[in-house]
Amino acid sequence: MSAAAEDGQQGLVAATRAYRVMRELVLEEDERLVQLAEVTGMSFIRSKVLRRLAAGPLRMSELTARLRTDKPYTTLVVDDLERRGLVVRSVHPDDRRCKIVTNTPAGQEMAELAESILARPPQRLLALDQEELALLERVLGKVTGASASTP
Fold this sequence. Notes:
By secondary structure, the chain is mostly helical. It has 8 helices and 3 strands; from the N terminus they run H-H-H-E-H-H-E-E-H-H-H. It has helices at about 5-30, 30-40, 45-55, 60-65, 70-85, 105-120, 125, 130-145; strands at about 60, 85-90, 100-105. It has a 3-stranded antiparallel β-sheet. Helix 4 packs across helix 5. The longest helix has 26 residues, at about 5-30. The mean pLDDT is about 90.
């Protein structure tokens, strides 16, 4: 195996280990998704819809794209949220074929609750000192392309 191929293989192994730790920290630490479901009484995808709509109304097609789901599934989820009184659908003013989805005040409140649960840092992050957190923020900013000052 060439040195470049060996370096590439070692990079893959290291990246896999790092990703495993990130995934465990985000998805499994404190069972955040379980807590979200218990507190809100809905699945993660439903709270994700509300959080996407928190910034403002979206066309169904835009919502589908942002959720990375298919149209029938988005419709199913929006139907359920509408039954719960958390979103409303309306006709787009410029194109009657398009539907616009908007959070109701109750939906906006639920989106804020879900965001507060998801935004709370895991205990293992809180245990790091300021220097370690600054380094982690810089590295993650490099990976995601986000500014270190992005909340």
